[in-house]
Specification:
- Helix content is 39%, strand content 16%.
- Helix 2 crosses helix 5, helix 13 runs antiparallel to helix 15 and helix 18 packs across helix 21.
- The protein is an alpha+beta fold.
- Strands 12-13-14-18-15-17-16 form a seven-stranded mixed β-sheet, with helices on both faces. The protein has a six-stranded mixed β-sheet with strand order 1-2-6-3-5-4, with helices on both faces.
């Protein structure tokens, strides 16, 4: 897309008058002196493009039609590239550099070097001094961690840059800086020593029970292969022994032109993009002797192995892991050697048939779980893992210690799929689901983001396959549909469960519950064939469903006053915001805001808030249970996300133009004629009980589970229910709590996207307009706001049961809430980003805190108060006092002296660009306008949004820091390992051995 969509044009019209408006409290600054701009050298014409009859490098040997929107090139030095014009979002360019080397390419002594190199390239390079990369990309408008990032996998290392607000100068500078990072990093002992603690911190943060079981699983499933002994994060021993010379030797072997693919997608002339690739990478030459890719190995069964009782494959390596804080889970896999394929249409037709076969089995397994089976969930998935194996994995979670019964039930469903063909109706149902996905891909092609397109090519290169245009995928699928017969699907199903060896891992919290011998016997036992999980295939039509009520009356229908959005009011009090636009072809977002949110709960019924998020949707609508709703949605794009916010409940769905009316019916019917099936509540209880102890396995888990509860001073509404609380919950109690809540409080419906405007207005009248008038939210409920924890001279301390070298620390300051001070809250976002940058600088070097330090602001717009600013980090226990000292020092410094102009620019430019990019989609406008039917001030405040986030002054930041940080009493929390105490903070001057009593079982 090379021009603004309607939403993009609207953004320009809406914000142009406010581009120079100073935000709240801002002060005018003197204009900078003029800078003489040197003309840029011309970008050379690309010479290595593969044009005419030449087959692009990505499609060699394939009959998949070349996506003509891409330009491909291969330079003499071996660098391959792909470039493409794309204007989503406008004025952004996404650059990916993929190096064909990951952890599988390391020697035993080099484990972790590929990932360490990823860090070192950001550390220092030809055009960037030490630790300058983050600042440089921020000045170009990129947010570090999202717009500027990298990843290391077993098979590759990929560098990812999304540069917003691009122009010729920024584009040239981006290629220059990136080329210096890739081609000429500074790899010496000093830089290795500086980055080592950060990498070790990442390793530490990933540790604990989850990592131990992940390692056990990897070592078991890939026994005898390189993948079994290599993780991208490396080992303590190899990382601590790393030095500049050895890391450079790894770099020289693998960071070479012939191992490099560069992908560039953006709102620019693709010939210019290709020219820049050739300009900055065309004369690159490797150093020293190139590396030779090692053999990753094949899965091999042990001699004389007994056969699996379902697949007939020999049973190989097995393991039982005991972790008291992890729920039960069992995975077994039928494994085959991975071989590079010729990516042809026929090959892809086989993959699509496999996908249909898996979907049929998974729907049967889900039906069994929903109906009160012996397992919480179960899934079958074929996967090609790190070019090491082609495997079919079966994973499930037993509900009790009788894992053998659960295994037998899962295997029985699979045995039926291997013995008897599916019905044509089952096949047609799954085909309809795939068809809508692929058709939606065609509709959405013009709004697919450049970053996603670039990532798709990188992933295709990694798995040694091609990319296909959405229309090609749809045509291939529709062309093969007549050949998807029961016998064909049965044959492909059997192929999924044929293999070289079967391996398995069982994780349990209870020692003695299983051992390898018992697991082997269970897998070797012949499975019974059970076809009772097969679902009735008859379709259900929306036309057969009862009306929500008597059609309502429209009492007002007026422009909202912004863009082309219309407000529609109904006689029953329901209000809707409707915006028909073509910003996202074929896509519609529907959101329903209703009720009181977390305000509706208290300590006596808080357990049902958590269960509601897992069971409310599944409990059904009218005469339709979850299985019937699934059938109703067949061949449609229907969603049903439910969330509880501070002051409101929300239903949200992404749907299509042709399905939006049905989506509105379902949402309205859930409010007007809810069903109260018991099984979803029982299942949600079981899931919550099984998951509860997993939070205790790391400080990050404790943060996820308890931070909201602790920072609100023990408000039970924000507690994660423990097993004792869950035992008190019943399906009857669930209905007693939720039934009145679905009838309470105002309703606001937002419909944004491409749709038939008159038809949607009429459907709103027939659905939401037909609902009974709502009951008011009680005054005492409406007045509830989240409290703030009492503060003290010493931090509160809670413990976790993870590794002894893991800890976390939190400092939180109360702020505010409501729409009246919304502009000030936007300025607080700038302040928190300033804080975040300073905290990262302080902790990465001093405490080896990886990239985990973060500072964020939460300002509830639907409540008058209850917001806060939070700073947190995961680190080693001895550095928790350092965190408190540094966080409080930064808070004081921000209040005592204003930030520099450069600091502000590195925050406001990325924020400005983030808003400009986001505002080209409907989600941005929906998020910022929700609630406007109840509070029209939100519409007025929308006009200053860009300015509020991107324009400020050092004095404003100092003022806000003084108000919200220096003059407020913070809540401090330390999460440390069981059995340890917190040392005195070296600079905070306070002992930190206080404790906080958590709820029972916590």
């Amino acid at each position: 897309m090379t021009s603004f969509s309607r939403a993009g044009r609207a953004l320009a019209i809406l914000l142009a008058p406010f581009a120079l408006v100073q935000p709240l409290l801002a002060q005018q600054a003197a204009p900078p002196p003029p800078v003489e701009v040197q003309p840029l050298p011309p970008v050379p014409q690309p010479q290595a493009l593969q044009t005419g009859s030449e087959v692009p490098w990505l499609y060699k040997g394939s009959d998949v039609p070349v996506d003509e929107k891409w330009l491909f090139g291969q330079m003499k030095n071996g660098v391959r590239y792909a470039v493409r014009r794309n204007g989503v979002p406008p004025r952004q360019v996404s650059i990916r550099v993929r190096i064909d080397a990951g952890s599988l390419h390391e020697t035993d002594k080099e484990q972790g070097y590929a990932h360490l190199l990823e860090h070192l390239l950001f550390r220092e390079s030809k055009y960037l001094g030490q630790a300058e990369a983050i600042y440089a990309w921020q000045r170009l408008g990129a947010t570090f961690g999202s717009d500027a990032n990298a990843e290391t996998s077993p098979t590759h290392t990929a560098y990812k840059l999304d540069i917003p607000n691009i122009d010729d100068a920024k584009l040239s500078e981006s290629f220059k800086l990136l080329s210096g990072m890739i081609r000429e990093p500074v790899l010496n002992d000093a830089n290795v020593s500086a980055e080592r603690p950060i990498v070790l911190a990442e390793k530490r943060e990933r540790g604990g029970a989850g990592l131990r079981m992940a390692d056990l699983t990897r070592q078991t499933f890939f026994a005898g292969q390189r993948l079994a002994t290599r993780s991208p994060i490396g080992t303590d021993e190899t990382l601590k022994a790393a030095n500049g010379k050895d890391v450079k030797a790894f770099y020289d072997r693998w960071y070479r032109p012939e191992n490099t693919v560069i992908v560039v997608v953006g709102d620019a002339d693709p010939m210019v993009l290709a020219g820049l690739v050739e300009q900055w990478f065309g004369d690159w030459k490797g150093t020293g002797k190139p590396g030779v890719a090692p053999d990753f190995g094949d899965p091999v069964p042990p001699a004389g192995a007994q056969d699996d009782g379902v697949t007939g494959a020999p049973i190989g390596q097995l393991a039982v892991g005991v972790e008291p804080d992890l729920p039960r889970s069992l995975t077994y896999a039928v494994m085959r050697p991975w071989r590079q394929v010729t990516d042809t249409i026929k090959y892809n037709e086989g993959l699509l048939t496999d996908a249909v076969a898996q979907a049929i089995i998974n729907r049967r397994l889900e039906s069994r779980a929903r109906g009160g089976g012996s397992f919480l969930y179960a899934q079958v998935q074929q996967d090609d893992v790190s070019r090491s194996t082609d495997a079919t994995f079966v994973t499930f979670a037993p509900l009790t210690g009788d894992w053998q019964a659960a295994l037998a039930d899962v295997r029985a469903v699979i045995a039926d799929a291997l013995t008897n063909p599916p019905t044509q109706e089952e096949i047609d149902r799954e085909v309809a689901e795939f068809d809508v996905v692929f058709a939606n891909g065609v509709e959405q092609e013009t709004v697919e983001s450049g970053s996603d397109l670039a990532n798709n090519v990188v992933n295709a290169v990694d798995i040694r396959e091609t990319v296909a245009a959405p229309k090609v995928v749809l045509d291939v699928f529709r062309g093969m549909k007549p050949r998807l017969t029961p016998d064909v699907v049965l044959e492909r199903t059997r192929g999924l469960f044929e293999g070289t060896v079967t391996r398995s891992v069982y994780v349990t919290p209870t020692a003695g519950e299983a051992d390898v011998g018992v697991l082997k016997l269970a897998l070797a036992a012949e499975a019974k064939v059970d076809g009772t999980a097969r679902l009735a295939a008859q379709s259900i039509s929306f036309d057969e469903l009862p009306p929500v009520g008597s059609p309502g009356a429209i009492t007002a229908q007026n422009p909202l006053g912004v863009l082309e959005i219309e407000q529609v009011d109904f006689a029953n009090g329901v209000k809707a915001l409707v915006w028909a636009n073509d910003a996202e072809p074929g896509r519609v977002t529907v959101r329903v805001r209703f009720g009181a949110g977390y305000r509706a709960f208290d300590k006596d019924n808080a357990v049902y808030a958590a269960l509601g998020q897992g069971a409310l949707v599944g409990s059904g609508v009218g005469e339709l249970g979850q299985n019937e709703l699934d059938r109703l949605a067949t061949g449609r794009k229907i969603g049903f996300d439910f969330a509880i916010d501070e002051a409101v409940f929300t239903f949200t769905a992404q749907t299509r133009s042709e399905d939006v009316n049905d989506q509105l019916y379902l949402f309205a019917a859930k409010l007007g004629m809810p069903r109260w099936d018991k099984d979803p509540v029982i299942r949600a209880k079981a899931a919550s009980e099984l998951a509860y102890n997993t939070y205790s396995t790391s400080p990050g888990g404790i943060l996820n589970r308890d931070l909201e509860y602790l920072v609100t001073g023990g408000d039970e509404r924000f507690a994660t229910p423990d097993p004792a609380a869950l035992k008190t919950a019943t399906p009857e109690g669930f209905r007693a709590v939720w039934e009145p809540l679905l009838k309470q409080g105002p309703i606001e419906v937002l419909v944004f996207g491409e749709f038939d405007h008159p038809a949607v207005i009429e459907q709103l009248r027939l659905t939401f307009g037909a609902l009974p008038r709502r009951e008011p939210i009680p005054a005492d409920v409406a007045a509830r706001v989240p409290p703030f924890a009492p503060t003290s001279a010493t931090p509160s301390v809670v413990t976790h049961r993870g590794d002894a070298n893991q800890a976390a620390a939190v400092v939180a300051w109360p702020s505010g809430g409501g729409v009246a001070s919304l502009r000030e809250s936007r300025q607080l976002e700038i302040l928190t980003q300033l804080f975040n940058n300073r905290l990262m600088d302080a902790l990465r070097e001093r405490a080896g805190a990886s990239y985990s330090p973060q500072v964020f602001s939460n300002w509830p717009t639907d409540l008058a108060s209850g917001g806060r600013i939070t700073a947190l980090a995961q680190l080693e226990p001895e550095f928790v006092p350092v965190f408190f000292a540094e966080a409080e020092k930064i808070a004081r410094d921000l209040a005592a002296s204003p930030p520099t102009a450069d600091e502000l620019e590195r925050v406001t430019e990325p924020l400005s660009q983030m808003i400009r990019r986001a505002s080209t989609g409907n989600q941005f406008w929906l998020y910022n306008l929700e609630g406007a039917t109840q509070d029209p001030q939100r519409v007025i405040l929308l006009r200053s949004l860009l300015a509020d986030y991107s324009q400020t002054s050092p004095q404003v930041m100092q003022f806000l820091a003084d108000r919200y940080l220096a003059k407020a009493s913070p809540f401090r929390l330390a999460i440390i390992p069981e059995g340890q105490t917190l040392a005195e903070a070296p600079a905070a001057g306070a002992s930190a051995n206080a404790t906080l009593t958590a709820p029972s079982g916590r």
